[in-house]
Design brief:
Blueprint lengths: L26 E4 L20 E4 L9 H12 L7 H4 L14 E4 L6 E6 L4 E14 L5 E3 L4 E10 L5 E6 L3 E4 H7 E9 L12 E9 L4 H11 L18 E2 L12 E7 L1 H8 L1 H15 L16 E6 L5 E6 L12 E5 L5 E5 L5 E4 L12 E6 L6 E6 L5 E5 L7 E3 L7 E6 L5 E5 L6 E6 L2 E7 L5 E7 L5 E8 L2 E13 L4 E11 L5 E9 L2 E7 L6 E6 L19 E5 L10 E6 L3 E8 L4 E4 L16
Parallel strand pairs: 3-9, 13-14, 26-30
Antiparallel strand pairs: 1-2, 3-5, 4-5, 5-6, 5-7, 7-8, 10-11, 12-13, 14-15, 16-17, 17-18, 19-20, 20-21, 21-22, 23-24, 24-25, 25-26, 27-28, 28-29, 29-30, 31-32, 32-33, 34-35, 35-36, 36-37
């Protein structure tokens, strides 16, 4: 998220840049160029001044412990290939720094664990408490806080110089250096929709961490070529064949008009030469990825990326282009939200013109059905609406623009549906409490299908699907506590008999014990209304990869007494947050967050009601 509560606009903006634990032997200086723009709640001042770490080559007479300190300095220097750190290695020593990054609270002083200086061979060890890791594809995984160690073996050569001749793969750095060096970027892949008739394949964001100040455009492009992480690869397509690469100098730059040219080599060049639709899809992926690389980090980019052109690296010809016109990662988003008035009728709020409230004539339940207890408006331009009766046992589908009453959907069995959520592919997701144990149902076409949830421990009480339909946020209750679980959505079967499974659940916001509302705020984060056992209820923004505990984002809006729901527009992070509060003093009310005044503003046009439940499409 780049505007409203996430740290993806600048991961370094939220680290203690000025107090990075710079080990002995490295040189630091202020970064050149203009200072980064403050975002969200970021404060200007010396604590956020950027620094550049310059690694120092090994000294001929350095001892093993001095060399190890210098080598660790090289790991946090602004060098693309760790070339200074590699000078500390004995020629021929194998080391693959790209395999893993281990992030620890702090790197301890080296200790001797084997050998002796007199014997010409020693093994030194550093330790730290693991906070998280990056894998070979730059995907983040939370650590368990347990101590980890890394060993380095030194040998004294015939020239009497000590060098490292054995070390474990990967890199170990402390938290403050990780915050300074790494930038969070989303890579985009088309969703896989096996088993479902789908006209479009939405682009799915994959949050990864890249070294933000070393040619970040090229780093992001190369990361996209390597493919999605192990967690996401099961639910997206990988259109870049193995062995594909970017031709020529490994540096991409946006020109005066914000255009980026990418010359592809290998199998990808063959694809774009012979298959124009695949070429356009690849260009769309590159554009969606590169256009959100933070521009303040790009010394080589005079302005944001506005288009990407793919070239055949073999003959140099332009093949296709991706831009905002054909590469949006989200369906079209308007300025309209929706709510239920005191009588249970659906109304709209025009957020772009004075918050005007209007009745929605085409989406009401049949007269005999009573009032609405829950609703969801589909994202995009279709105007489809799902409405649930007060008892949750009848589901109606209507349209915002229809002059007729919605038709009733047959709902088989003893169901009690709630928490409807619609993705951009037309699948409606709901919780079913009819059996007494919360489960997940999905309406695909005219079929209400059970959804298997692998690894679930507890009952599902709420569901919010990402717009792309490939990721989903579940609120799960177990043993008196509730949690937010992020899962991937796997489609199998056939269009006539689809099967849906939610897999690989990942718990986020572990410090919270009570969850009251969840809403996607953009492609890689959700906003959560909840509380811990030791704190009052509040709002927090949580990254779906679990990295919020390591790199907190800007503070979200403060919660107001009585807030019961929260809604954000995933397709447009600039849209204001909406909340519903119900207090004894003034009953139900709808509020919007006003960043300029840092306050919640009451929307008086909506009137008071018992359960207005303001919601954006989705």
């Amino acid at each position: 998220m780049r505007v409203r509560g996430s740290r993806r606009s600048s991961a370094t903006g939220w680290g203690a840049l000025g107090v990075a634990l710079l080990l002995a032997g490295c040189a630091t200086m202020p970064d050149s160029g203009a200072p980064p723009r403050p975002t969200g709640g970021e404060q200007t001042g010396g604590q956020n001044s950027q620094v550049v770490v310059v690694a120092v080559p090994p000294s001929p007479d350095a001892s093993p412990d001095q060399l190890l300190s210098g080598f660790l300095d090289g790991l946090v220097a602004d060098e693309a290939d760790y070339h200074t750190a590699k000078e500390y290695l004995d020629p021929g020593t194998a080391w693959s720094p790209q395999d893993q990054v281990a992030i620890v609270d702090s790197v301890s002083q080296p200790t001797l664990v084997a050998g002796s200086v007199a014997g010409g061979r020693v093994t030194l060890q550093v330790e730290g408490r693991e906070l998280g890791t990056l894998d070979a594809k730059n995907a983040y995984a939370p650590g368990n806080g347990q101590p980890i160690s890394r060993k380095f073996e030194f040998v004294r050569g015939k020239d009497k110089r000590w060098r490292i001749d054995s070390l474990q793969p990967g890199v170990i750095i402390n938290q403050s250096d990780f915050q300074r060096i790494y930038e969070s970027v989303d890579l985009y892949y088309p969703a896989a929709r096996q088993g479902v008739d789908a006209v479009t394949y939405p682009l799915v964001p994959e949050p990864v961490y890249l070294r933000g100040r070393i040619d970040p455009l090229t780093s992001a492009a190369n990361a996209l070529l390597t493919g999605p992480s192990d967690w996401l690869q099961h639910v997206v397509q990988q259109d870049f064949p193995a062995g594909s690469s970017i031709d020529g100098p490994q540096s991409l730059a946006s020109g005066d008009q914000g255009n980026v040219d990418i010359h592809l080599q290998g199998p990808a060049a063959d694809v774009i030469r012979t298959n124009h639709p695949d070429c356009v899809l690849m260009a769309s992926q590159f554009f969606a990825t590169l256009s959100q690389v933070p521009t303040q980090q790009l010394d080589q980019a005079p302005q944001p990326v506005k288009s990407v052109t793919l070239y055949d690296g073999k003959d140099g010809s332009a093949r296709c282009q991706g831009s905002s016109r054909n590469s949006s990662a989200f369906p079209p988003a308007g300025d309209t939200s929706y709510y239920l008035d005191a009588g249970g009728h659906l109304k709209s709020l025009d957020m772009g013109s004075g918050n005007a409230a209007r009745a929605v004539a085409g989406a009401q339940l049949p007269t005999a059905a009573g009032v609405v207890s829950g609703f969801a408006v589909s994202p995009g331009v279709s105007g489809d609406v799902a409405l649930l009766t007060q008892d949750g046992r009848r589901l109606y589908l209507g349209n915002l623009n229809s002059a007729t009453e919605p038709t009733r959907q047959a709902v088989p069995g003893n169901v009690q549906l709630g928490s409807p959520s619609w993705d951009s592919t037309g699948t409606l997701w709901m919780v079913d409490k009819g059996s007494g144990a919360g489960s997940v149902k999905a309406l695909v076409g005219q079929m209400l299908l059970p959804v298997a949830v692998e690894g679930l421990h507890g009952q599902v009480t709420g569901v919010r699907v990402a717009t792309d339909g490939a990721r989903i946020a579940l609120t799960v209750s177990s043993d008196g506590r509730s949690s937010v679980q992020i899962g991937r959505v796997h489609y199998t079967g056939t269009p006539q008999q689809p099967q849906l499974t939610i897999e690989a659940l990942q718990s986020i916001a572990p410090s919270l014990s009570t969850i009251n509302a969840v809403s996607w705020v953009d492609g890689d984060s959700v906003i959560v209304l909840g509380r811990s056992e030791l704190s009052a209820e509040g709002l927090t923004v949580q990254q779906i990869d679990g990295s919020s505990a390591l790199i907190p984002g800007p503070q979200p809006p403060s919660a107001t007494d009585g807030i019961q729901s929260i809604s954000a527009l995933q397709q447009d992070p600039t849209a204001p947050l909406l909340a519903y509060a119900n207090t004894p003093a003034d009953g139900g009310k709808i509020m919007r967050w006003q960043p300029s005044s840092n306050t919640w503003v009451l929307l008086p046009q909506t009137g008071a009601g018992t359960t207005p439940m303001p919601s954006y499409p989705g």
